[in-house]
Amino acid sequence: MNSDILKSVADKGLKDEVPYFEVGDSVEVDCRIKEGEKTRIQVFTGTVISRKGSGIHENFTVRHVVGNEGVERIFPLHSPNVIGVRAIRSGKARRAKLYFLRDRVGKAVRLPHRHSTHTVSR
Q1: Could you write out the three-class secondary structure of the chain?
Q2: Can you give the pLDDT at residue 117?
Q3: At a CB cut-off of 8 Å and minimum separation 6, what does 19 contact?
Q4: Domain CATH number, residue 58
Q5: What is the Cα gyration radius of the chain?
Q6: Using CB atoms within 10 A of its CB, is residue 109 exposed (0-12), middle (13-18) or buried (19+)?
Q7: Consecutive sets of 10 residues in the chain, 122 residues long: mean pLDDT of each?
Q8: What residues contact residue 54 under an 8 Å CB cut-off, 6+ apart?
């Protein structure tokens, strides 16, 4: 009985349209930031290095290098402060978590481009 109540409350917080992106993709995340009484939208661009959780608890981590310093932000996928997620470039990843990118610098951070899987020729 309690789980039914929790599930119904959690379902109300889910977004109707969830954007499609995978680990390894370069994305732009539009997030709402409140400063005092003003709110603005800030774009955070980087590579998705992990996704975890499910349902209302799903999170994804985006990493970006700014001035020789790595910056990682964890975004809840269904948060009202995350306005949108746009995939810029799809990267080919062979792992679910790309934590090894934390040790890399410069061009070594880039992942190979993943081509569309619908046009596979043999």
Answers
A1: CHHHHHHHHHHHHCCCCCCCCCCCCEEEEEEEEEECCEEEEEEEEEEEEEEECCHHHCEEEEEEEECCEEEEEEEECCCCCEEEEEEEECECCCCCCCHHHHHCCHHHHCCCECCCHHHCCC
A2: 53
A3: 84, 85, 86, 87
A4: 2.30.30.790
A5: 17
A6: middle
A7: 80 86 94 95 96 92 90 94 93 92 83 64 43
A8: none
Rounded to whole angstroms, the Cα distance separating 68 from 85 reads 25
27: in domain: yes
Q: Which domain holds residue 93?
A: 21-111
Nearest to 90 by CA among 9, 27, 19: 27
Instruction: Give the whole-angstrom CA distance, residue 38 versus residue 120.
Output: 49
Number of domains in the chain: 1
* Global pTM exceeds 0.85: no
Nearest CA to 62 out of 25, 105, 17 is that of 25
